[in-house]
């Protein structure tokens, strides 16, 4: 039996604050099927980033579990979570977070090198993915020499570099003007669908959300249909 690429079961996450514990996730359940693209649309401060960070194995849940392709992953130790994250999860942030001293090509090579891919293969794959985003002529440019849309395309290419099964994104086009955001989002959806990736994409933009397969929101720390 094949497993869902991503499943959250009864995930809890709380933060200590001066006013006491802040219960952000209170039993969040969510299952993404292969190729399913889900919009996470919820008011500011309700826990979208927290949910993405726990789902992306960046933070450990305080209760419940995150399963990646059927295997319990969220509550493993830091090194094990890092290894799973590197090989199975791609993450795109609102701001590109590219390394400024490296070229576009090198930025897409880096996660592959970290995962043990030989340099020549990593370079070839970086060029291939960047080409899919129309950046074949920009491989040797540093981020500072790229437009905002190009920077974000490189960031998406980097997220796809290790052929993840799950793509997580936090307002991936939120820093772009409307026209550029639409173009970049089209390419993101096209590449995600082409690869059959399960995606969870947080956005405040209802038009972008409407183009995904379904919408969820957060209510009192739980994931509910949006
Ligand atoms: N490390 C932390 N320590 C303490 N509180 C935190 C921490 N991270 C987040 N919070 C709090 O948890 C709540 C949820 O934050 P989170 O960033 O997940 O919300 P969000 O829905 O992503 O918001 P936004 O849309 O504004 O980015 C907020 O009240 C926030 O202040």
From TrEMBL:
<dbReference type="InterPro" id="IPR027417">
    <property type="entry name" value="P-loop_NTPase"/>
</dbReference>
<dbReference type="GO" id="GO:0005524">
    <property type="term" value="F:ATP binding"/>
</dbReference>
<dbReference type="InterPro" id="IPR003439">
    <property type="entry name" value="ABC_transporter-like_ATP-bd"/>
</dbReference>
<feature type="domain" description="ABC transporter">
    <location>
        <begin position="6"/>
        <end position="224"/>
    </location>
</feature>
<keyword id="KW-0813">Transport</keyword>
<dbReference type="InterPro" id="IPR017871">
    <property type="entry name" value="ABC_transporter-like_CS"/>
</dbReference>
<protein>
    <submittedName>
        <fullName>ABC transporter ATP-binding protein</fullName>
    </submittedName>
</protein>
<keyword id="KW-0547">Nucleotide-binding</keyword>
<dbReference type="InterPro" id="IPR015854">
    <property type="entry name" value="ABC_transpr_LolD-like"/>
</dbReference>
<dbReference type="InterPro" id="IPR017911">
    <property type="entry name" value="MacB-like_ATP-bd"/>
</dbReference>
<comment type="similarity">
    <text>Belongs to the ABC transporter superfamily.</text>
</comment>
<dbReference type="InterPro" id="IPR003593">
    <property type="entry name" value="AAA+_ATPase"/>
</dbReference>
<keyword id="KW-0067">ATP-binding</keyword>
<dbReference type="Pfam" id="PF00005">
    <property type="entry name" value="ABC_tran"/>
</dbReference>
């Amino acid at each position: 039996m094949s497993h869902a690429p991503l499943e959250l079961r009864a995930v809890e996450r709380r933060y200590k604050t001066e006013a006491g514990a802040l219960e952000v996730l209170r039993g969040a359940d969510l299952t993404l099927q292969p190729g399913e693209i889900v919009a996470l649309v919820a008011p500011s401060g309700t826990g979208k980033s927290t949910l993405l960070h726990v789902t992306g194995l960046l933070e450990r849940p305080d209760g419940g579990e995150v399963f990646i392709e059927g295997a319990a992953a969220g509550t493993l130790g830091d090194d094990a979570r890092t290894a799973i994250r590197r090989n199975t999860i791609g993450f795109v942030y609102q701001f590109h977070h590219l390394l400024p001293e490296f070229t576009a090509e090198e930025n897409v090579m880096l996660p592959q090198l970290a995962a043990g891919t030989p340099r020549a293969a990593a370079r070839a794959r970086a060029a291939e993915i960047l080409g899919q985003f129309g950046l074949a002529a920009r491989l040797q440019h540093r981020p500072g020499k790229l437009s905002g849309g190009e920077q974000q395309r490189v960031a998406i290419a980097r997220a796809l570099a290790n052929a993840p099964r799950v793509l997580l994104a936090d307002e991936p086009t939120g820093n772009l003007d409307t026209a550029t955001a639409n173009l970049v989002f089209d390419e993101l959806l096209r590449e995600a669908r082409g690869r059959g990736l399960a995606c969870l994409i947080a956005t405040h933009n209802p038009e972008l959300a409407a183009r995904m397969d379904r919408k969820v929101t957060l209510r009192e720390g739980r994931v509910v249909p949006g």
